[in-house]
């Protein structure tokens, strides 16, 4: 039932951000209460696969890794994915990076400079909370560099991701979409609760006013950077229980595709048992 979620979310050429039902639950026809036990079981499965990925890198010459790229407008639920989905696995095997406004040092380099430095080591799941895609999203919408500069980045990103895939990294690219109305609700909740003030950023309202421009920029990202080696997944995210289950499934799908196994012992088990018992 749930592996159809991954299938249903894959971006299909011609699909439009504007036409997306952000409250839909593609591939899952149950309600929140039905999802809870499924989520628990699938989180366990994810943790098991992550352990195998980690273990594989301790074996001979296995350099594989997984990179989860999370994109979405403010309050789309990226933080919840990190807390609840990534939080279900052993932090030892996770390399998490949030990408905010570039520092002066970062701005002195090519836009992929800080991205390359944050790539997951072999055996790890890298998590990008925002990513190199900001360089064709906010940068495009806000005219932070000339059009010919951001315009060239789609191809540069594709070439970069090709390189990653060729070196053993499986990309799981996820664009989370909420409705304008749902974003308002979420941001209001932050203002209604003093323990959530820290999550509120007055600048989010300014970005919110540019919603159509962001939709257009997201559409261009999907159209130009969804490749067969690194496809995008479009996740309706008004229902948080769904987006969590969906992204759990996407990670499981990627990890199962690696056909992982625990590395064989590089010592003689019987001999070691004897030595240990005699010690
Ligand atoms: P939350 O969703 O919880 O608010 P956040 O991801 O928005 O978290 P913030 O530190 O509030 O985290 O914001 C990061 C900001 O940095 C975003 O507005 C994002 O668009 C911006 N940003 C990220 N990368 C770039 C970039 N390359 N150039 C300019 N701005 C960027
Ligand atoms: Mg923010």
Number of helices: 12
CATH superfamily: P-loop containing nucleotide triphosphate hydrolases
Report, as a whole number of angstroms, the end-to-end distance.
Answer: 51 Å
The unique ligands bound to this protein are: adenosine-5'-triphosphate, magnesium ion
Class by SSE composition: alpha/beta
In percent terms, what proportion of residues is strand? 5-15%
Shape by Cα distribution: globular
How would you describe this structure to a colleague?
The chain is α/β, with parallel strands linked by helices. The chain has a single domain (2-278), classed as 3-Layer(aba) Sandwich (Rossmann fold). Helix content is 48%, strand content 11%. It contains 12 helices and 5 strands. It has helices spanning 3-9, 32-56, 78-85, 104-107, 113-116, 138-141, 147-166, 180-192, 203-208, 211-225, 240-256, 269-278; strands at residues 65-72, 94-98, 125-129, 169-177, 232-236. Helix 1 (3-9) packs across helix 11 (240-256), helix 2 (32-56) runs parallel beside helix 11 (240-256) and helix 3 (78-85) crosses helix 11 (240-256). The protein is globular. The chain starts with a helix and ends with a helix. The model has no long low-confidence stretch (mean pLDDT 96). The chain binds adenosine-5'-triphosphate (ATP) and magnesium ion. Residues 74, 78-79, 99-102, 130, 134-135, 138-139, 144, 199, 201 line the site of adenosine-5'-triphosphate.
Outline the fold blueprint.
Blueprint: H1 3-9, H2 32-56, E1 65-72, H3 78-85, E2 94-98, H4 104-107, H5 113-116, E3 125-129, H6 138-141, H7 147-166, E4 169-177, H8 180-192, H9 203-208, H10 211-225, E5 232-236, H11 240-256, H12 269-278
Parallel strand pairs: 1-3, 1-4, 2-3, 4-5
Helix pairs in contact: 1-11, 2-11, 3-11
Residues 74, 78-79, 99-102, 130, 134-135, 138-139, 144, 199, 201 line the site of adenosine-5'-triphosphate.
């Amino acid at each position: 039932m749930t592996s159809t979620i991954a299938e249903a979310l894959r971006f299909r050429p011609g699909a439009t951000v504007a036409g997306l039902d952000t409250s839909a639950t593609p591939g899952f026809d149950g309600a929140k209460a039905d999802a809870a036990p499924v989520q628990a079981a699938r989180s366990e499965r994810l943790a098991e696969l992550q352990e195998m990925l980690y273990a594989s890198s301790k074996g001979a010459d296995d350099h594989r890794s997984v990179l989860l790229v999370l994109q979405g407008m403010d309050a789309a639920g990226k933080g919840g994915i990190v807390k609840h989905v990534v939080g279900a696995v052993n932090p030892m095997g996770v390399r998490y990076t949030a990408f905010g406004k570039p520092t002066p040092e970062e701005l002195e380099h090519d836009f992929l400079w800080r991205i390359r430095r944050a790539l997951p080591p072999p055996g790890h799941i890298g998590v990008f909370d925002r990513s190199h895609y900001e360089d064709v999203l906010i940068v495009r919408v806000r005219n932070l560099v000339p059009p010919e500069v951001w315009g060239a980045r789609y191809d540069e990103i594709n070439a970069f991701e090709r390189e990653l895939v060729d070196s053993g990294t499986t990309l799981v690219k996820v664009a989370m979409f909420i409705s304008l109305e749902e974003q308002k609700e979420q941001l209001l909740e932050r203002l209604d609760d003093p323990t959530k003030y820290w999550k509120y950023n007055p600048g989010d309202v300014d970005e919110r006013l540019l919603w159509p421009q962001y939709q257009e920029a997201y559409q261009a990202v999907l159209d130009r950077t969804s490749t067969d080696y690194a496809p995008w997944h479009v996740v309706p995210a008004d229902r948080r229980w769904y987006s969590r289950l969906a992204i759990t499934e996407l990670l499981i799908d990627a990890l199962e595709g690696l056909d992982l196994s625990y590395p064989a012992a590089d010592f003689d088990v019987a001999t070691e048992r004897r030595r240990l018992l005699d010690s």
